[in-house]
Amino acid sequence: MSATTTVTSTPAGAIQIKAEEPSQDYKYAHLLPVFPKDEHYPPLEPFEHVDPGHRALQHPNPRQFLANATVSQLTPPAGEEIRGVNLATLTPDEKDELALEVARRKVLVLRGQEDFIERGPDFWLEWGRYFGRLHIHPTSGHPEGYPHLHLVYRDKNSTFNYERSDRTIATTWHSDVSYEHQPPGLTALFLVSAPETGGDTVFTSQVTTLKRLSPEFVAYLKTLKASHSAHEQAEYSRAGNRGGVVRREPVVNEHPVIRKHPVTGEEALYVNRQFTRRIVGYKREESDAILNFLYDHIDRSIDSQVRARWEPYTVVLWDNRVTAHSAILDFTDQNAVRHGIRITPQAERPIPANPDLKL
Ligand SMILES: O=C(O)CCC(=O)C(=O)O
Ligand SMILES: [Fe+2]
C-alpha cells in the first residue's frame, strides 16, 4: 500500500499538493488533499443526534457482530483488535452493535478492511452517515469533490498537518474538533500510505484518566465548564505562506469539563491541550493552573493509553467523546508518505456528568 512515488508540492513548501508526474501512478492520487480557495460554509446548525449504540442495548447479544471474529484486547483501559469482520457489509443491526462496541472499548483496530477501503469515497460517506451528520473540517485538506472527508497527509515536502520544527515533542493530544457545538462521536481513520514503521496513532481513555483522580477533586471538576476554540487552528491555516484555507468562521463553544456518554453512561474528562482554552468564569492564572494540571496528567498517563499500529488495510474507529489521541511523529526523518482519511460523524452536544451544571 505504500506510495512508492514522490508527491510534489509547491515551492512555498506546504500544501498545494497536486499529483504531478511521476505521481500519476500513485494509486490514491485522487485522494490527495486539495484546499480550494473559493469554498465557504455557513455556521453549523444544531441537529438532533440519536446514537445508534442505544439500539444495540436492546439486542439479545449486543456483540453478535463479532460472533465469527477474532478479538483481542489491547490494553485494559481501551482498545480491541478485530480480525474477521468486514465493515463494508455490516447490516444496520450490526452497525448499531459496532457503535456500542466502540463506545465500550473506545478504540477498535480493525484489520483486513481491504473491501471497505477499496470501495472509495462515495461509499465511505454513505457508511459514515449512518452514525451521524458528517462534519466538514474548517481547515484541513480533502479529496477533490469530497469536503466531508478530512485528510492527514505528510511527505518530505509537505508538512501541513505535522510541523515539528519549533517543538521538542510533537505529540498533540486532542479530541477532534472539540470546539464544535456538537463534536464527533464514533470516528473512523485509515491510512492508504504509511511509513514502513512508525506513525502509529496513540489514544488515551479519558474515562481512565478521570478515574485516577480523587473523588473530591472529580466532584469539584464536575462544577466546571471550559471553552474550546477553533481560532488558533484557523489562524495557523491563514498564516504565512502556508496556503491554507478557512472554510467556516472559527467558533468557540463551552463544554462541561466532565461529560457523560449518552449510551454507556461513563464519565470522561473532556479537556485537551489543542482546543481547550479557559475554565469559564475563572481568571487566567486560575484557569491555567487547573487546565495545565489536567493536561500534564493526560500527557503522563501511559497507563490509560493504547497505540494503534497501521498494518496495511487497517481501519481504526474511536469514540471521540471519551478519548483523546495524537499522531506519533517518529517517522518524519524518513522519506515516507503518510496519507490518511477520516470519516467524522458528529454526535450530541456534550452531556454534563453533573445534571445541575447549566450550559
Ligand atoms: O494522523 C494521525 O495518526 C491522527 C490524525 C488525527 O488526529 C485525526 O485525523 O483526527
Ligand atoms: Fe485527531
For the report, how would you describe the main beta sheet?
7 strands, mixed
- Characterize the overall form: globular
Largest beta sheet: strand ordering: 2-3-4-15-7-17-6
Write the CATH homologous superfamily.
Clavaminate synthase-like
The chain-level mean pLDDT equals: 92
The ligands bound in this entry are:
2-oxoglutaric acid, fe (ii) ion
What are the segments in which pLDDT stays under 50 over at least 5 consecutive residues? 1-22
What would you say the CATH architecture is?
4-Layer Sandwich
CATH C-level class is Alpha Beta
One letter per element, helices H and strands E, the order comes to EHEEHEHHEEEEHHEHEEEEHEEEEE
Tell me the span between the first and last alpha carbons.
46 Å
Radius of gyration: 20 Å
Q: Percent of residues in beta strands?
A: 15-25%
The percent range for helix content is 10-25%
Structural class: alpha+beta
Number of domains: 1
Number of strands: 18
How many helical elements?
8
What's the SSE blueprint?
Elements: E1 33-34, H1 53-56, E2 70-73, E3 80-83, H2 92-105, E4 107-110, H3 114-119, H4 121-129, E5 142-143, E6 149-154, E7 186-193, E8 201-205, H5 206-211, H6 215-221, E9 225-229, H7 231-238, E10 252-256, E11 258-260, E12 267-269, E13 276-279, H8 284-300, E14 305-308, E15 315-319, E16 323-327, E17 338-343, E18 351-352
Parallel strand pairs: 3-4
Antiparallel strand pairs: 1-5, 2-3, 4-15, 6-17, 7-15, 7-17, 8-14, 8-16, 9-10, 9-13, 11-12, 11-18
The protein binds 2-oxoglutaric acid and fe (ii) ion.
Residues 150, 152, 176, 189, 201, 325, 327, 340, 342 line the site of 2-oxoglutaric acid.
